[in-house]
Specification:
single chain, 279 residues, alpha+beta, Metallo-beta-lactamase, Chain A, 7-stranded mixed beta sheet, 20% helix, globular
């Protein structure tokens, strides 16, 4: 899809599953299971949608999925299969790891930054050797010292090798990374998650990340139980969902297995989802 001189597409790191109750927080199961049916282990099917951006001769990757470092126990827990993964899909677009100039980590949970690194001879090294990796400083600091509630979401092998290689670009707040690519700090899921806005040619796209992980989470009260600051999530949903609908920006849903991108149409107090393909 083109936005002026900027071109982007969605590239998946494949499917995975998380507990449906955790994904929908206080929403009762009889309601959420009508949107996404759980399996026999109460897990719902999700996806790890990343975004490949090309603009001004620069190649940018937003999100890097879960990577290939999870052990067999975790692969079973999260139902991560053996099908095509992120590097395969980048290759299908003619992008090799050393072609990537910038990696934007919206946050450092394992399902968003796993391909940051790979293990070679028992040592973690950056998967994208020529890239600057962008994250909020506060998020990196928290990832190094997570609390008991979210420590299972962080794997140090995903981010410490980036520090050792000197490839971090650490931010404190909103920033335009290159013309047409902006990161916006949106706390709620955690303290320093950042969403990504792409713009050009009078049009825009907005990566909701875990503010609105799937189209089922568009209603304001449908907030994940994983969120550390749910009232901030609610505040930011009330800010950004109407804004995306008003400006007719394309919404990108990081974890939706069926509708990775859509337009939001406001009907009274409700927002309807109009699926849209990104070619």
């Amino acid at each position: 899809m083109r936005l002026g001189d900027l071109e982007f597409t969605i590239v998946s790191d494949g499917g995975f599953r998380l507990d449906g109750g955790a994904m929908f927080g206080v929403v009762p199961k009889p309601l959420w299971e009508k949107r996404i049916a759980p399996d026999e282990r109460n897990r719902i099917q999700l996806c790890m949608n990343c975004v490949l951006v090309r603009t001004g001769g620069i190649t940018i990757l937003v999100e890097t999925g879960a990577g290939d470092k999870l052990d067999a126990k975790r692969r079973d827990i999260y139902a991560i299969g053996e099908g095509p993964r992120l590097l395969d899909r980048l290759a299908a677009h003619g992008v090799k790891p050393d072609h990537v100039d910038i990696v934007i980590n919206t946050h450092l949970h394992f399902d968003h930054c796993g391909w940051n690194t790979r293990m070679v001879d028992g040592r973690g090294i950056p998967t994208f050797p020529n890239a600057r990796y962008v994250v909020q400083l506060g998020e990196l600091e928290h990832a190094k010292r997570p609390n008991e509630r979210d420590q299972a979401s962080y794997m140090s092998d995903n981010f410490l090798p980036i520090e050792a290689a000197g490839q971090w670009m650490l931010l404190e707040g909103d920033r335009e990374i290159v013309p047409g690519v902006e990161v916006i700090r949106v706390p709620g899921h955690n303290a320093d998650m950042q969403c990504v806005r792409l713009s050009g040619g009078g049009k825009s796209a907005f990566c909701f990340v875990d503010l609105v992980p799937t189209t089922a989470h568009v209603p304001f009260p449908w907030i994940m139980g994983y969120d550390l600051y749910p009232m901030q999530t609610l505040e930011n949903k009330k800010r950004w969902i109407p804004e995306i609908a008003r400006t007719e920006a394309l919404a990108i849903f990081t974890h939706d297995a069926n509708v990775p991108s859509a337009y939001l149409r406001q009907r009274g107090d409700q927002f309807e989802v109009e699926p849209a393909r990104v070619d």
